[in-house]
Every structure is written in structure tokens, then in C-alpha cells.
Design brief:
- There is one protein chain.
- This protein is an alpha/beta fold.
- It has one domain: 3-Layer(aba) Sandwich (Rossmann fold), CATH 3.40.50.
- The protein contains eight helices and six strands, in the order H-E-E-E-H-E-H-E-H-E-H-H-H-H.
- A six-stranded mixed sheet has the order 1-2-4-3-5-6, with helices on both faces.
- A hairpin with a 2-residue loop joins strand 1 and strand 2.
- The N and C termini lie far apart (52 Å).
- InterPro entries: AB_hydrolase_1, AB_hydrolase_fold.
- GO terms for molecular function: epoxide hydrolase activity.
- This is Abhydrolase domain-containing protein 7.
- Keywords: Hydrolase.
- It comes from Pararge aegeria (speckled wood butterfly).
Length: 239
């Protein structure tokens, strides 16, 4: 039994995908905007650009691993509405999601992730005098918290959905199940396989239907579990 468990952990649990449930590699619908790529600190990012480039910049950081949630009618209508009101909307695929390059856990630690987002904002034209609006949810919301604390001068306003402040995890110890989950995801390979298998059993079409699709999301969380925001890093932008 131990031999079988170790072999499965080492090789990864490979389960053949149903033909009716192919992995979703990338949102290719161009009706909502222009698909673009940019290289930031040696990393290739994919984003969708909507609205006039001269408008107020809005950076949207989605959840991971499935960026498809951004394109359901509710979110696409939000993006269109922002564009109609003159905003320049950048909807970013996080690393390891959609068309953006993945990375190891050290590559997706909060300090590295925040520096890449800072460089991205600067490359897109944001500055201290022309800050951007940032909207994040899920893992994207977690990164938004770190970004506004560390580089708040680049953010004029921000909104976070489904992502409590990182320090709450330190101030309020999690339940036993959640605490065990944090330790469980530190293992290599096995959590990805386990999560992908659960998605396949649901019989739904997600971008997370393969083990490697979960690596980006889990590597963000693996690193974030050990970082807290220092008290002197106050948020200046309006929430």
C-alpha cells in the first residue's frame, strides 16, 4: 500500500479526460476585448484589454485556477459597463492560469508576485500621478491586499471580493480542518492531482480539469500562508 501511494504521488494521478470535458486552455472570445501578451520581469502574462486606452485604468485580478469565471454574463457585463463609461480595463490571467506563464512556489510568493504586479502597472502606464483602480477576487483579491499595502501609490481605489485581509489568518486561528488543509497543500504534486480528480468527478468543464492547472493557484497560496502585512504598511487608497 505504501509503495502504491508513493508511486502515485511521485508520478501524479493521471486520469483520461472525457471527450465531452476538454480542458479550457484560454478564453479566446474576442467580443469583450483584445487579447494581449506582455513580458514582465521575464514572465509572459496574458490579459484582455477593453475600453479606450486614454481612460482611467482598471486592473482586474481574477481567481485561480479558473479564469473563466471572469467571462460569465455578470462579470463580462461589468467589464463592458466600465469600458462604456470610459475606463481602460485590463483583465489579467494570474500566473499558471489561462495564457499566463506558471512558476514554482518561490516564483509566486507574495514579494515576487507583488513586484511583478507593480512592474505590470508601470508598463501599462500607471504611475504615482496616474494611479490605477484594482479589482480582485479570490486569489486575485489576496494579491490586491498585498499590492495596495506595498505599492499603494500606484492604486487610487480598490475592491476585494471573497478574500479576507491576509492578517486575519494570523489574528484568528483557523478551524482544525482549514489548518490541516494549509499543511496539506504544502506537499508537492499530490494536492494538484486530488483537486483535479474532484473537478472531473463533478463532470463540469473547467480550466482546472488537469493536475498541472492547479499548480499556479496552489503555489500562490503555498507562499501566502507564511506572509503577513506589517503594521506600518498602511493602505492609502480608498477601498
Amino acid at each position: 500500500m505504501i509503495h502504491l501511494a508513493v508511486r502515485r504521488l511521485w508520478k501524479g494521478h493521471r486520469r483520461k479526460l472525457s471527450k465531452n470535458c476538454p480542458p479550457v486552455e484560454l478564453t479566446v472570445d474576442s467580443s469583450i476585448g483584445i487579447h494581449c501578451y506582455i513580458k514582465i520581469m521575464g514572465v509572459k502574462y496574458h490579459y484582455v484589454e477593453t475600453g479606450p486606452k486614454c481612460g482611467k485604468k482598471v486592473l482586474i485580478l481574477g481567481d485561480a485556477p479558473d479564469s473563466g469565471d471572469l467571462w460569465v454574463p455578470r462579470w463580462s457585463s461589468v467589464v463592458r459597463r466600465l469600458a462604456e463609461t470610459g475606463h481602460h480595463v485590463i483583465t489579467l490571467d494570474l500566473r499558471g492560469t489561462g495564457g499566463s506563464e506558471g512558476g514554482w512556489r518561490s516564483d509566486l510568493s507574495p514579494p515576487r508576485a507583488v513586484e511583478e504586479l507593480r512592474a505590470l502597472l508601470l508598463a501599462l502606464g500607471a504611475s504615482d500621478k496616474n494611479p490605477a483602480i484594482v479589482i480582485g477576487f479570490g486569489i486575485g483579491g489576496m494579491l490586491t491586499w498585498y499590492l495596495v499595502h506595498c505599492h499603494g501609490s500606484l492604486v487610487s481605489k480598490f475592491a476585494v471580493v471573497a478574500a479576507p485581509h491576509p492578517n486575519l489568518y494570523w489574528q484568528h486561528p483557523p478551524a482544525a480542518f482549514c489548518q490541516g488543509s494549509i499543511h496539506f497543500i504544502q506537499w508537492p504534486h499530490f494536492p494538484e492531482s486530488w483537486l483535479a480528480e474532484g473537478v472531473l468527478q463533478e463532470g463540469t468543464q473547467w480550466a482546472s480539469s488537469r493536475a498541472r492547472d492547479w499548480s499556479g493557484a496552489l503555489n500562490y497560496v503555498r507562499g501566502a500562508a507564511w506572509y503577513r502585512v506589517h503594521a506600518e504598511h498602511r493602505v492609502q487608497a480608498r477601498a
